[in-house]
Amino acid sequence: MTTEAGEDRVLTIPNVITVVRLLCVPVFLWLLFDQHKRVEAAVLLGVLGATDFADGYIARHLHQVSTLGKVLDPLADRVLLMVGASAILVDGSVPPFVAWATLVREVLVAGAFLVLAALGARRIDVQWAGKAGTFGLMFAFPFFLMGHDKGFSLHGPIEFLAWCCAIPALLLAWYAAVTYIPMARQALKTRQVDSTSA
């Protein structure tokens, strides 16, 4: 597999944004569990989720797409979503089935990608449905967190928004997970053909 010119770069604006997103995860946990500030923690998690498209947009428009970024960006999404969902589940602010449906899906997809990489199969590109599902869940969980704070004046409407985001996002996320199955099979077949002809 060839690397496009410039894709071996490490220090790029999108990669810096992604690293900053990851470094903010402990701040989110500190706000939620140490400071007990649900609204502030929710706002931070929502901002981190909203910047998901920022690094990709900047990478494409500034021609700063990198091999590291292709791995780091989805990794950051996985970490943010899994840590956020787990923490908000522990806090009791999200319906358990929403959190578990999210976590099980993330573990399965991440595990499948790791197995494919270990077997030497080509990397599977992230599907639009998976991206959209992740983006929706990145907002659903902060909304659930804010909606659970009865001291927040808009907790009722915010909780309604959480459900509006969570249901379609989960459907899209699981649809994407199912579509990865034939893609994974094809990636393995391609690997087998390549190894045979080598």
Explain what you see.
This protein has 198 residues and is an all-alpha fold. The chain has a single domain, classed as CDP-alcohol phosphotransferase transmembrane (TM) domain (Four Helix Bundle (Hemerythrin (Met), subunit A), Up-down Bundle), CATH 1.20.120.1760. 79% of the residues lie in helices and 0% in strands. It is built from eight helices and no strands. Helix 1 packs parallel to helix 5, helix 2 runs parallel beside helix 5 and helix 6 packs parallel to helix 8. The longest helix has 43 residues. The radius of gyration is 18 Å and the shape is globular. It starts with 12 loop residues before the first helix and ends with a helix. The model has no long low-confidence stretch (mean pLDDT 84).
Task: Let me know the largest β-sheet.
Answer: none
Number of domains: 1
Shape: globular
The CATH architecture can be given as Up-down Bundle
- Which CATH top level class fits? Mainly Alpha
Q: What's the topology here?
A:
Elements (H helix, E strand, L loop, with lengths): L12 H11 L1 H10 L3 H13 L1 H10 L5 H25 L4 H23 L9 H21 L6 H43 L1
Quickly describe the structure:
This protein is mainly α and about 200 residues long. The protein has helices at about 15-25, 25-35, 40-50, 50-60, 65-90, 95-120, 130-150, 155-195.
